[in-house]
Amino acid sequence: MTMKAAVYNGVDRPLEVADVPIPTPASGEALVRVAACGMCHTDLHYLDHGVKPFKDPPLILGHEVAGTVERLGPDSDGHAEGERVLIPAVLSCGRCRYCRQGRENLCDNLVMLGNNIDGGYAEFVVVPARELVSVPAGMSLEHASVIADALSTPYHAVKHRGRVRPGDVVAVMGCGGVGLNVVQCAVAAGGRVIAIDLSDERLALARQLGAGETINPGTVERLDKHVKKLTGGGVDVAFEAVGNPATIRGAYGLLRKGGRLCVIGYTPEDVTLSAARLMYYELEVVGSLGCGGGEYPEIIALVEAGRLTLEPIVSGCLPLADIEEGFDRLRRGEGVRWVITP
Questions:
Q1: By three-state DSSP, how is residue 284 classified?
Q2: Angle (CA) 163 263 279, round 5°
Q3: Fewer beta carbons within 10 Å, N or C terminal of the chain?
Q4: pLDDT digits (tens, 9 = 90+) for 209-229
């Protein structure tokens, strides 16, 4: 038996939509019929920028997956065939030191869909059944898929790394798919949010998601001075969601005394920050990676309660055959999150 999948064969090569064998679930595993898989800029690092996935090609990319349980392997308890489920983007072992501390995203044996193992740009995917998260009946699977990274990563960053508290003044540098969800997560945590981006369209979306102020850096002479005047000294927490040395430095420069910079964006380049300022103003600089599977039920509950929304985040759906068009839209910066529906 075969299925359709978009196969990655190496950098600077288009994905090949091909027939490949349907995987068989082993003991403790589940075969999930993919209803939707969100498209992420992480995949562009593999396709365009020479970043090597852990699994050598051929590899099926895609790590934001929602679908239904098609078949369970032996000893796969806790779920049922036909169940609507979400798959966390990163899968943990549950046994190492970090997993036992509740920090599954730092698992010593971490496995990422579409990186270590085949992912969700396919009709079916196999994962450990214990990792599956149930999706409520009233929630669209197309919308639910983006919880797996586009929403869960910002949620973890805001709650556990940025530690936003009610009344905090928060700056979000970069309002792409991740940054816009940082905005709404910070608002849900009680923060007063300033959204910063070069796109007025993205800034309008940030306002829709609760940002009280928006700034296009191209319209002000000095972003740091502008923000400090606006806030009376700077922000309590700044999130960098671009992955660029210049914007990391820029976000660091927005902090008030005792402030905290949380870096979510990925860059392989070194970044120089003032150690004197770090010491003298008692600043903090923290990183944030993904999200542990244990946090997903609380995220889903917030979506169900209407405190977080998925509607403006999902720009539209595309069939698997049009996946290259979807990536071209990402490259052009069109929309927020496109979803493949195999």
A1: strand
A2: 75
A3: N
A4: 999 999 999 999 999 999 999
* Dihedral sign, Cα of residue 34, residue 39, residue 42, residue 48: positive
Instruction: With beta carbons less than 8 A apart as the criterion, state whether 129 and 28 touch.
Output: yes
- Nearest Cα neighbor of 151 from 336, 24, 26 is 336
Tokens representing residue 131 in the block: 């990792």
Mean pLDDT across the chain: 94
Beta strands of the chain (E only): which ranges?
2-8, 16-21, 29-38, 59-60, 64-72, 84-87, 90-91, 111-112, 124-128, 133-134, 169-173, 192-196, 213-215, 235-240, 255-263, 284-287, 314-318, 337-340
Domains contained in the chain, CATH given: 2-149+291-340 (3.90.180.10), 152-287 (3.40.50.720)
Q: What are phi and psi of 23, to 5 degrees?
A: -70, 150
Instruction: Measure the CA–CA gap between 76 and 242, rounded to whole angstroms.
Output: 39
Residue 306 class from Cβ within 10 Å (0-12 exposed, 13-18 middle, 19+ buried)? exposed
pLDDT tens, 35-90? Answer: 999 999 889 889 888 889 999 999 999 999 999 999 999 998 889 999 999 999 99
pTM for the whole structure = 0.92
Coil/strand/helix, residue 146 = helix
- Bridge partners (DSSP) of residue 194 are 171, 213
Q: Provide the 3-class DSSP secondary structure of residue 208.
A: helix
Neighbouring C-alpha atoms within 13 Å toward the C-beta of 259: 23
Q: Is the pLDDT of residue 127 over 90?
A: yes
Q: Are 193 and 241 in contact (CB under 8 A)?
A: no
16-21 β-sheet, strand order: 16-21, 2-8, 59-60
Asked if pLDDT for residue 11 goes beyond 90, the answer is no
Pairing relation of β-strands 192-196 and 213-215? parallel
Cα separation of 145 and 121, whole Å? 12
3-state secondary structure 173-202: ECCCHHHHHHHHHHHHCCCEEEEECCCHHH
